[in-house]
């Protein structure tokens, strides 16, 4: 009967929603303990210079392995951490760990650059620029070693904390990259205003580049913007040689992607850096 069905459906949804709420509560409780329980790790994805095909830096990417929920991806838990406020503490852990590990990386490659993802929530209600300055100072790293990856929408935000922190970061001398460029709200005027150095072309435009004329048009247009505004372009998500060759033919200088390496441990990155110091040790020849 329709009435019964209706009631059952209502109960079903109610139950499901309740489970969702419980899940979020449980996950938040676990997240609160993640740092002290040593459940967070940073992996590093190499950034490759396309002329030499050598590693010039890396992007730090966060991983969470929880005893109860298993491996939880950053696309899932970072938005939750932004909502429950734990992003501040987690973000500080990421910055600290990335800088500590970079001390090791620059011993092998003095020109090494580290890129760290910072979410918009970390720009609010804090003095992020001073926090980063302190961490860099603690590890005796020059600010120019660090690159902060932000999304396009942050630049358009009128919140004064965000604006002050952006200006503070540039005064400090860390560089700014726009992550996932081409997928969000873009006001190209802000790129100049905030003195952004790098546009990271979103993976969705790179993934089927050889097949899609549409994506080729977009990628070439972004590369033209970079050339005209004197910005560095980084192609995200390069997975094959044909895509790489196409990007090289358009004078794209830097890329990341599974073609060279997935995000890897600190020790594995050190190994790659050491190996590429030997003559002819290009990254390509190191990865099967
Ligand atoms: P993102 O910053 O755009 O990072 C690039 C993502 O693409 C990473 O996913 C990386 O593993 C993946 N990727 C790189 N090359 C390839 C490729 O060739 N093919 C494919 N299919 N994927 C590739 P990941 O590590 O799962 O990170 C997802 C997102 O989570 C990041 O996107 C970033 O927005 C966020 N995130 C990760 N770590 C942090 C962090 O420490 N703090 C903050 N605020 N966000 C983070
Ligand atoms: Mg990123
Ligand atoms: Mg990205
Ligand atoms: Mg992303």
From TrEMBL:
<protein>
    <submittedName>
        <fullName>Sensory box/GGDEF family protein</fullName>
    </submittedName>
</protein>
<feature type="domain" description="EAL">
    <location>
        <begin position="24"/>
        <end position="277"/>
    </location>
</feature>
